[in-house]
């Protein structure tokens, strides 16, 4: 038990647990800054080397690759116990089922999530989220898509599949594990504001329930990837061209 507990804490400290602490510090900085939250911006995909596109691309790919190291660690830890990622349903066993279910989830959550964000921002409970501010270079959209896939794999494998498995092994009740997973998901989105925290926490509850029903994170990875791809690419195409989409 002690080993499993230490392992879980270390995995979180190297990944989304650390992101949650970072998001909390960022949120405190935002609420203590003069002006309202909606007058501040949270940028998700920004340039690392403005004016130097090849160096910028190298940094972008490096960031995406290193962000997936905790997933590789989880795969290693699960393999050591004789399970592997197949135990949490992250494999190629049911590609069409995962794709279909993930697409349906994305369609349902996407429209509700956008509406909630617009309402939360209008109420002053959310920063203006800027999904991307990359330069107009040839690799812009491929990098945005890779970033979306990286986010989805990292979050769903660790916060749903791995965390729920370990908490169950540690004797947590299903309700306590659901709360822990959902609150963690909301916490590392706190940099967006209260709206980002609540919206993602609710999404976390839905994802945990679906994972328990299907026993697979595959559909959740697909859904999350589609949601982020639409957000990142859609913002790049529509920002400044439509009146309903908030920009800084």
Which helices and strands, and how do they pair?
Blueprint: H1 2-13, H2 16-31, E1 41-46, H3 53-67, H4 69-80, H5 95-122, E2 128-133, H6 140-169, H7 174-187, H8 194-214, H9 218-238
Parallel strand pairs: 1-2
Could you spell the SSE succession in H and E letters? HHEHHHEHHHH
End-to-end Cα distance? 48 Å
Q: What is the oligomeric state here?
A: single chain
| Average pLDDT | 96
Rg from alpha-carbon coordinates:
18 Å
Report the biggest beta sheet as strand number plus sense, adding barrel if it closes.
2 strands, parallel
Explain this structure.
By secondary structure, this protein is mostly helical. The chain has one domain. 68% of the residues lie in helices and 5% in strands. It contains nine helices and two strands. It has helices spanning 2-13, 16-31, 53-67, 69-80, 95-122, 140-169, 174-187, 194-214, 218-238; strands spanning 41-46, 128-133. The chain has a two-stranded parallel sheet with strand order 1-2. Helix 3 runs parallel beside helix 6 and helix 4 runs parallel beside helix 6 (140-169). The chain is globular and about 50 Å long.
List keywords for this structure.
248 residues, mainly alpha, two-stranded parallel ribbon
Brief characterization of the structure:
This protein has 248 residues and is mainly α. It has helices spanning 2-13, 16-31, 53-67, 69-80, 95-122, 140-169, 174-187, 194-214, 218-238; strands spanning 41-46, 128-133.
């Amino acid at each position: 038990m002690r080993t499993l507990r230490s392992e879980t804490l270390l995995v979180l400290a190297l990944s989304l647990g650390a992101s949650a602490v970072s998001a909390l510090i960022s949120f405190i900085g935002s609420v203590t800054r003069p002006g309202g939250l909606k007058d501040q911006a949270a940028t998700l995909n920004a340039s690392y080397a403005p004016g130097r596109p090849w160096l910028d691309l190298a940094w972008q790919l490096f960031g995406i690759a290193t962000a997936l190291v905790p997933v590789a660690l989880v795969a290693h830890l699960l393999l050591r116990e004789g399970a592997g990622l197949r135990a949490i349903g992250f494999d190629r066993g049911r590609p069409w089922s995962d794709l279909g279910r993930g697409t349906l989830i994305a369609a349902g959550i996407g429209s509700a999530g956008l509406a909630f964000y617009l309402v939360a921002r209008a109420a002053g409970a959310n920063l203006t989220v800027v999904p991307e501010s990359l330069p107009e270079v040839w690799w812009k959209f491929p990098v945005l898509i890779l970033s979306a896939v990286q986010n989805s794999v990292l979050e769903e494998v660790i916060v749903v599949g791995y965390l729920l498995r370990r908490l169950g092994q540690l004797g947590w009740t299903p309700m306590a594990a659901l709360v822990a997973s959902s609150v963690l998901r909301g916490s590392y989105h706190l940099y967006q504001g209260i709206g980002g925290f609540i919206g993602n926490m609710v999404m976390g509850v839905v994802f945990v329930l679906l994972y328990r029903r299907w026993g697979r994170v595959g559909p959740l990875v697909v859904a999350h990837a589609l949601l982020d791809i639409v957000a990142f690419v859609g913002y790049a195409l529509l920002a400044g061209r439509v009146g309903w989409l908030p920009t800084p």
